[in-house]
Amino acid sequence: MEIKNETNNEFYLGRKSIFIPIVFLIISIIVLVILKRASLKTFWIIGFFAIFLTYLLSKNKKEFGNKCVENLKSNTLLTYVLIFILAGILSSILKVTGVSNALLTIFINTGVGPEFIPAIMFIICCLISTFIGTNTGTYSIVVPIFLPIAVSLNCNPALALGAIMCGGGFGDNLSPISDTTIISVNTMKVNLLDTLKVRVKTSLGCALLSTVIFIILGHLLITNPTNNIETYANDSLMPLLMLIVFVLMMFLLLKKNDLISVLLICDVFAIILAMVFGFVSFGDMFSQNSPIISGIEGVFGVIVFWIFLFILTEFIPTDMLEEYINKKVKNSKSPSRTNGLAALTIISSILLISNNTAAMSLLSKFIDKCFKNKTQIEKANIFDGLSCATSTLIPYNTAVMLMISLAYGTGCLPESFSPISIVMFSINSMLLLITYTFKSIYDPKKD
User: Fold this and answer.
1) Is residue 390 part of a domain?
2) In what helix (H) or strand (E) does residue 23 lie, and over which residues does it extend?
3) Which of 175, 230, 377, 428 could form a disulfide with 210 if both were Cys (CB 3.0 to 4.6 A apart)?
4) DSSP 239-280
5) Rg of the chain (C-alpha set)
6) How far apart are CA 367 and CA 348, in angstroms?
7) pLDDT at 211
8) Span between the terminal Cα atoms of the chain, in Å
9) pLDDT tens digits along 132-167
10) Does 202 fall in a domain?
11) From the CB of residue 1, how many other CB atoms can be counted at a distance below 10 Å?
C-alpha cells in the first residue's frame, strides 16, 4: 500500500491524475463499440495506450517499469489467470467431445419451444451459482455447453450470454458461500442467515421478473428456430457422459474446495474420460492440435488485457478515496444524500477496479459509516447487491471476461459480435442495480 501511495504522489497533475488513463480506457471501449470494432484483441490496443498515458503522467520515469511490475504482484490477478487457463482447458475439451450436440438432440426431442431457451438458461445458472457460490465456476460449466445450443436455435448470442451472466450474478449475490456474501456480512457484522432471509425477497423478486422478460425476449428475438437444427444434432448421446465432470465439480465446490484445485481436478478427469470413451484419441490429446493447447490459447487474450488493467488499477490511491468519502459523509446533512454517495462510491469502485471481490475488500474498511438511517442488515444487502449487479454490467469485469473468452472458444460467435452487446440483455443485473440504488437513498422516516 505504501508503494502505491508513493507512486501516486509522483504524477505531474497530482494523485488524482491516475484516473485519467482509467477513464481513457473506459471511454475508448465505448468508442470501439460504437465503431463496431470491439473485441478482446482491440482491447489490447486500448490497454497499451492507457499504460503509455500513465507513463507520460508519471514524474519518475526511471522507476515506472518497476512500479508496473510491483502492481502485477497481485494475488487477485494470479488467481484469475490460473482460473482462466484451467477453465479454458475444460471448455475446449467439452467442445471437442460433442456434449452440446448431444444435449441439442435431447432438446429437439422434448418439444420444448426454442423461445424458452434464454429463460431456461437463466434459471439453470441461478441454481448452479447459488449452489456453488461462484459466477466464474458457473460460466465454466454452462457457457461451453449451452451457448452452442442457443446459437444453433438461432438465439441471439448476446441474449444467451446475458441470461447466463445474470444467472451467475444471481448466485454470487445470494449464495451463502459466495465470497461477496461473506465480505458483506463480515463488514457489517451481521448474522448470515438473518441477512439472507431479507436478501432473498429482493433476489427472487428480480429473478421472477427477469424470467418473464427473458421469455418475452425469446419469443421476440428467436426467429426461424427450426432452421438447420438437425444439422447440429448428434445421433449419439454418449458425450453426455462428460456431464459427470460437472457433478464432480459441484460436489467439490460444495465441500468448499478452492476453485483452482477444483478446476485442475476436473480438467484431468475430463481428459481421462474423453480418452477412455474414445471422444478424443490419445494421439490427438497430446498433439499440437490438442484441446488442452487450444483451451490455453483461447483465454490468452483475456490474460493480456488483464495485465494492462491491473497495472492501471493498482495505481489507485485508496487512502485518498477513503479520506474523500469520510469528508463528504461528515459534511452531509441529508441521510438520503449521504446514502446516495455511499451507493455511488460502491458502483464507481467496481467500475474502476472491475473486480467486485477486490473492490468490496477495499471498501470494507470504511463503507459501514457511509450509510445513515440504515440497519446493519440493510447495509450488508445494499453493499452486496450493488457490487454484484454492477460487476455483471461491465464487459471488462474479471468473471465476465472469462465468460466472453469461453464464448469465443466455442467457435459459434459471429465476427460481428460485440461483447458490449451483452449488457443490454443483462436484465436481472439491471433490476438489482435499480432496486438496491432505490433502497440506498429511500428514507422511510420521511413518509
Assistant:
1) no
2) helix 19-34
3) 428
4) GGGGGHHHHHHHHHHHTT--HHHHHHHHHHHHHHHHHHTTSS
5) 22
6) 13
7) 95
8) 44
9) 677 877 888 788 888 988 888 888 899 999 999 999
10) yes
11) 8
- Amino acid making up residue 314: E
Cα 266 to Cα 272: distance, rounded to the nearest angstrom: 10
pLDDT tens digits along 181-201? 888 888 888 888 888 889 999
Query: Phi first, then psi: what are they for 58, rounded to 5°?
Result: -80, 135
Tens of pLDDT along 56-90? 988 888 888 888 888 888 777 787 788 778 878 88
**Cell 457433478 sits on residue:** 247
Distance (Å, rounded) from C-alpha 376 to C-alpha 381? 9
Distance of CA 45 to the CA centre of its chain: 22
Boundaries of domain holding 150: 76-179+192-301
Enumerate residues 6+ apart whose C-beta is below 8 A from 54.
18, 21, 64, 311, 312, 315
Asked if 140 and 91 touch (Cβ cutoff 8 Å), the reply is yes
Half-sphere exposure of 64 (CA within 13 A, CB side): 15
CA distances (Å), origin 178, targets 88, 181, 210, 357: 22, 5, 21, 10
Is 44 part of a structural domain of the chain? no
pLDDT at 1: 35
Domain assignment of residue 345, yes or no: no
**How many Å separate Cα 301 from the centre of its chain?**
16
Give the integer Cα–Cα distance in Å for 123 and 108: 19
Nearest to 323 by CA among 362, 364, 366: 366
Take residue 130 and report the three cell numbers written for it: 447459488
Cα 74 from Cα 304, distance rounded (Å):
15
Cell numbers at 416, concatenated: 460481428
Tell me the CA distances in angstroms from 14 to 11, 179, 320, 328, 404, one per residue in order: 5, 34, 11, 20, 36
φ/ψ (deg, to 5) at 135: -75, -30
Give the integer Cα–Cα distance in Å for 316 and 311.
10
**Nearest CA to 207 among 278, 125, 143, 289?**
125
**Is residue 160 within 8 Å of residue 413, measured between CB atoms?**
no
Domain count across the chain: 1
pLDDT tens for 403-421 read 888 888 888 888 778 888 8
